Description:
The protein has helices at residues 21-29, 48-51, 78-82, 107-111, 156-163, 182-188, 202-218, 235-242, 255-262, 267-270, 275-294; strands at 9-13, 35-39, 54-68, 88-90, 95-97, 118-134, 140-148, 171-175, 193-198, 222-227, 247-251. By secondary structure, it is an alpha/beta fold. The protein has two domains: 9-61 and 127-294, P-loop containing nucleotide triphosphate hydrolases (Rossmann fold, 3-Layer(aba) Sandwich); 63-124, Alpha-Beta Plaits. Strand 10 (222-227), helix 8 and strand 11 (247-251) form a beta-alpha-beta unit. Helix 5 (156-163) packs parallel to helix 6. One iron/sulfur cluster binds at residues 68, 73-79, 90, 95, 112, 114, 117-118.
Amino acid sequence: MTAPLSPRTIAIASGKGGTGKTTVAINLALSVPNVQYLDCDVEAPNGHLFLHPAIHTHHDVRVALPQLDDAVCTRCGLCADACEFNALAVTPRRVLVFPDLCHSCGVCTYVCPVAGAISETTRSIGTVSSGTAAITTGGQLPVAQGLLNIGESTAVPVIKMVRQQAQPPFTVLLDAPPGTACPMVETVRGADFCLLVTEPTPFGLNDLELAVGVTRVLGVPCGVVLNRSDLGDAGVTDYCREHDIPILLDIPFQRELAEAYSNGIPWVVAQPAARAQFQALFHAIHAQIAAAENRP
Ligand code: SF4
Ligand code: SF4
């Protein structure tokens, strides 16, 4: 009998959308015990389309916003000059605040020389929902997802709250946003491992290189899942070999899996035998984490 694996935080990311990142995250979540699925793709969470979780709690995600008192403010302009995000504009009659641009950094309050000219209020930018999803082989999968309000541009606070839903001692699977911008960085930061899902095409290679660069800066060990591995070229495989990045799972294209996906049916539900592949992937990830931790 094998010993239970230690709880870990595993981010599943991709340099670009449409590579099968959520497919891998969902099927991993449905194949191994004692895991929690957190959907950090807060601009377009879609894990729920496959898991159909029963939601038990909702949290409003609120961020700080400066509030100005025109009666006290002298229009000196120091706050607008200090704002890195151009979220303030000083006019002769008042200081305008642009909430969509504000990053809640607090610098304007810090630099304002007039007591009481700036105070702080909050505003809602999204929600985080938590619940459980039934697993067809038995048991419940803890699930949480974030949803950024339409028109909002700052996903990071919502992602932070999604990550706060982690419930030890579960291993946490973080379904990251696509790309390599701040939302992806916020999801991968501090994880024990980052699984990068890509496809064997020049676009896949280009975006994989960017994503690997992020994981290296963050000091998070990474490995690759090569989706639709029989379509395309050898560029990704050659790159991984040259940069000592393990390819932990190859997924050849199967039309029936694409059809199941389009009907919202996870692969391991359509083909239960596929669970073994994801269980092997899970063990391979833990072996990579252990190897990284033992590296001098
Ligand atoms: S720094 Fe303070 S006093 Fe000056 S314009 Fe901004 S809010 Fe008004
Ligand atoms: S809190 Fe930061 S981002 Fe927002 S208005 Fe003030 S200085 Fe600009």
